[in-house]
Amino acid sequence: MRIFDRVRLQDIDRRNWQLWGLAIVMIIILAIGLALYMYALASEGGFWLTERNAEEGIIAFCALALLFAGYLIDRLIVIARLRRELSEERKRNLELRAQSNKELLETLFGPNQFCDRLALELQRAAKSRQPLSGLTISLEVSQDISEGEEIYSAFGEAVKAMMIKLRGEDSIYQFSSGVFGLLLPSTGSELARSVAVRVADGLYEAMGASRRYSFDIRVTNFPDHAKTADEMERLMREPVGS
Fold first, then answer.
1. Neighbour count for residue 67 (Cβ, 10 Å)
2. What pTM did the predictor assign?
3. pLDDT tier, 7 (very low <50, low <70, confident <90, very high otherwise)
4. What does the alpha-carbon distance between residue 73 and residue 79 come to, in Å, rounded to a whole number?
5. 179-185 and 171-176 as β-strands: parallel, antiparallel, unpaired?
6. How far, in Å, CA of 212 to CA of 161, rounded?
7. Where are the beta strands (DSSP E) in the chain?
8. Could you give the CA distance from residue 151 to residue 172 in angstroms, rounded to a whole number?
């Protein structure tokens, strides 16, 4: 049986359907055999059976039914074990994913690093007369999510979606739980809005069908919305919608 137990987890559904097909075929065969045997016993013009033949037929029929039932039970046990292993593997993957997302959030730059980078970029933008833009993204988890690990997982997936949409010179910061900032050097208001659209598309993709969170995005631009570093910092660090 060990040879037949070598079932990959990816093939469990296909093997389950194969098992059901085998069960249906064997039930049909046993039903036909039983019908023929009963016809032979009940019909005078049917098959001629001696008493010994009848006993041997009954024994063979019962043995075949027991063998099939034993095999079917064994296969059901194997599939149940594989389903349990698959469930445990999915649980481990979710735990590892949540831990990875938590570590990602912990490695993000915070408000202090944002202030330093903003002052540097704003000074550079003022000297070169280039615009500087920032995006503030506020995330709010769904009411169905209450545990800390699920919140970390949702925010981590959202951060990954944001990072994919960033350019090489852009940077991301975590102001507080669920509030993030993107600093976009040499980016005007119009281009910043297009970046915001790309980031929103990425967040919608990472959100999934479960809608684990909702989000809002605000664009802040120097010199359109802010004239100094303190003013731009205040505008960007303020959660959207507050």
1. 11
2. 0.64
3. low
4. 10
5. antiparallel
6. 14
7. 132-141, 171-176, 179-185, 213-222
8. 19
Distance, in Å, from the CA atom of 215 to the CA atom of 204, rounded to the nearest integer, reads: 9
User: How many Å apart are CA 229 and CA 108, to the nearest integer?
Assistant: 21
Residue 1 has pLDDT above 50, yes or no: no
Listed in sequence order, the residues at least 6 apart from 178 whose beta carbon sits closer than 8 Å to its beta carbon are 138, 139, 140, 141, 155, 239
Beta-carbon count within 10 A of 101 CB: 21
What share of the chain has pLDDT > 70, as a percent? Answer: 83
How are strands ordered across the β-sheet holding 179-185?
171-176, 179-185, 132-141, 213-222
Please report, to the nearest 10 degrees, the dihedral formed by the alpha carbons of residues 102, 105, 111, 113 taken in order.
120
Q: Which two tokens stand for residue 145?
A: 């999510």
